[in-house]
């Protein structure tokens, strides 16, 4: 038998388990002086599922607390069975969990768990997003006030926004801090995530800041963003709010570069 | 004696010990990292690694190169590994004589191979290609195993010895893995160690394992047992002043306990070195 066939049979036996009838590799494995080949081979079979379950559990501790061990264990089992890992680095093995949940007849109805998974993955992504030094707010002072409307922003690689069921972000905070939370309702909320001082952070944002961020990240300048916000809600204090967003983006460390559009 | 310069006595750098390492600057000669834990875009693990690197030599130890897989080499992975090496400037890079998956799948485990000529030729060719790509010699570790194959044409130590010679790579001799595999498959661990070419060994590992009635499992979640320390002393006597470290990956003790275990390693090494000196005179 060639090396590839050994490996393909070995792998199938580990994934399917010894009771599946597919453990043909055992025909090519020796018994040991102390025990039979099945007992030793089962070390690989058991370790496979335990290791993958540990990866998922490590990446989604708040989801595990929210669902409870039994339901979370069942979800992890479904995830492991959904597809074998094709990730070289274990860091990314559990990354698809939110999508697998939303595509699953069994789990998609549990919107709170689906959205908690999305938020927890977003925070993990922010944790090890690429490095980029944040720009201090002093950089704004160096821009002539007449040029502010032409300002374009580059955001930190960790910056992301998630649309979630209303109350999920507060539920996440409550679970992380081991306190009671108000129930999640049928509405929607948007949560901004990024990394600050090496730690992932988040806050809920209102609709106008959400719009401003979407347009800014798409390369629109500050003047265009203000025009869009005015069109959207006609708020007469609009410039004050927009300037408030801008200042907070700098204070939060979201902005890494500014330039002025032509 | 090994021709490779010794870094002394090291520990695995694990996130649970970051505060202790950064604040205490402990008496550890060097740290080994799991390469994949730092093959990420950025953030805290990499910034901490750079701070540790400022004070200690670092060795990169991978678990995903899948040297023995019949799949093609993963050059995306190797490119990331090389980029990390350029950033960290490790003393060396190691991985395992094992495969982790085939046909694009990854089982995230270190899996055994049949010790057949085809596998030997395959592994030798891949180590050479990896060394060419990385621009440095690779250090290859023997893995713990729980299966041996009827068709094997040679013993594991014969395979390892010929692999190292033909690929011109270095070896990371994991003493605990020799002990675990020796127990599981009924071979003499001391004979394994005596069969490894001295000049090829760049590093020694020791670790704890879990013992069941009929098998041992390489869990890295226990203190190093007396039998493995005895084997380490034998290895130190044979290979001389080779970089050695303790792997601990679960059931983490307070850092001071790990440091105490490292002092035990130093004491045993000193005893073995004294024995070597007496033998030489």
Summarize the structure.
With 262 residues, chain A is α+β, with helices and mostly antiparallel strands.
Question: Beta-sheet strand percentage of chain B?
Answer: 15-25%
Largest interface: A-B, 49 and 47 residues
Average pLDDT taken over every residue of chain A:
93
Rg estimate of chain B, integer Å: 18 Å
Structural class of chain B: alpha/beta
Strand % of chain A is 5-15%
Task: Return the structural class of chain A.
Answer: alpha+beta
- The domain count of chain A comes to 2
Say what the CATH topology of the largest domain in chain A is. Outer Surface Protein A, domain 3
Helical fraction of chain B equals: 40-55%
| DSSP strand tally of chain A | 5
Note poorly predicted spans of chain A: none
Structure characterization notes:
The complex is a heterodimer of chains A (262) and B (281). Helix content of chain A is 50%, strand content 13%. Chain A is built from 11 helices and 5 strands; from the N terminus they run H-H-H-H-H-H-H-E-E-H-E-E-H-H-H-E. Chain A is elongated and about 85 Å long. Chain A starts with a helix and ends with a strand. The mean pLDDT of chain A is 93. The model of chain B has no long low-confidence stretch (mean pLDDT 96). Chain B has 9 helices and 10 strands. Chain B has an 8-stranded parallel barrel, surrounded by 4 helices. In chain B, strands 8-9 form a two-stranded antiparallel ribbon.
């Amino acid at each position: 038998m060639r090396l590839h066939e050994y490996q393909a049979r070995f792998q199938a036996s580990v994934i399917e388990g010894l009771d599946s009838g597919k453990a043909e590799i055992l025909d090519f494995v020796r018994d040991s002086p102390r025990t039979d080949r099945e007992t030793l081979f089962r070390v690989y079979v058991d370790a496979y599922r335990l290791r993958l379950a540990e990866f998922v559990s490590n990446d989604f501790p708040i989801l595990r607390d929210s669902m409870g061990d039994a339901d979370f264990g069942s979800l992890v089992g479904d995830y492991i069975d959904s597809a074998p890992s094709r990730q070289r680095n274990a860091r990314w093995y559990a990354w698809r969990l939110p999508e697998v949940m939303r595509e699953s007849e069994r789990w998609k109805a549990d919107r709170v768990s689906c959205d908690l998974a999305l938020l927890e993955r977003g925070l993990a992504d922010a944790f090890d997003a690429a490095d980029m030094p944040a720009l201090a707010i002093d950089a704004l002072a160096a821009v002539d006030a007449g040029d502010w409307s032409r300002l374009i922003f580059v955001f930190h690689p960790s910056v992301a926004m998630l649309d979630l069921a209303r109350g999920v972000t507060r539920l996440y905070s409550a679970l992380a801090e081991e306190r009671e939370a108000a129930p999640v309702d049928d509405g929607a909320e948007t949560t901004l995530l990024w990394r600050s001082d090496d730690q992932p952070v988040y806050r809920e944002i209102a609709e106008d800041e959400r719009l401003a961020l979407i347009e800014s990240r798409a390369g629109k300048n500050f003047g265009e963003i203000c025009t869009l916000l005015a069109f959207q809600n006609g708020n007469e204090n609009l410039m004050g709010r927009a300037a408030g967003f801008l200042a907070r983006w700098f204070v939060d460390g979201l902005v890494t570069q500014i330039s002025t559009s032509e | 004696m090994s021709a490779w310069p010794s870094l002394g006595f090291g520990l695995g750098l694990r996130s649970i010990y970051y505060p202790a390492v950064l604040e205490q600057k402990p008496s550890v000669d060097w740290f080994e990292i799991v390469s994949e834990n730092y093959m990420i875009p950025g953030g805290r693990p990499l910034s901490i690694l750079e701070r540790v690197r400022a004070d200690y030599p670092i060795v990169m130890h991978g678990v995903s190169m899948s040297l023995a897989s019949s799949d093609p080499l993963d050059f995306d992975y190797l490119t990331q590994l090389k980029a990390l090496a350029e950033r960290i400037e490790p003393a060396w890079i190691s991985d395992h004589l094992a495969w982790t998956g085939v046909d694009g799948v990854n089982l995230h485990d270190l899996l055994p191979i049949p010790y057949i000529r085809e596998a030997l030729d395959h592994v030798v060719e891949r180590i050479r290609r990896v060394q060419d790509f990385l621009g440095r010699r690779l250090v290859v570790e023997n893995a713990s195993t729980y299966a041996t194959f009827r068709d094997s044409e040679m013993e594991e130590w014969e395979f390892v010895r010929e692999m190292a010679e033909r690929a011109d790579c270095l070896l990371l001799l994991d003493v605990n893995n020799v002990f675990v595999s020796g127990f599981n498959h009924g071979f003499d661990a001391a004979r394994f160690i005596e069969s490894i070419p001295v000049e090829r060994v760049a590093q020694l590992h020791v670790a704890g394992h879990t013992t069941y009635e009929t098998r041992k499992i390489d869990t890295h979640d226990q203190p190093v047992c007396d039998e493995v320390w005895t084997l380490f002393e034998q290895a130190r006597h044979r290979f001389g002043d080779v970089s050695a470290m303790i792997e601990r990956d679960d059931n983490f003790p307070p850092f001071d306990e790990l440091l105490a275990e490292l002092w035990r390693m130093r004491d045993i090494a000193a005893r073995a070195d004294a024995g070597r000196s007496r033998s030489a005179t």
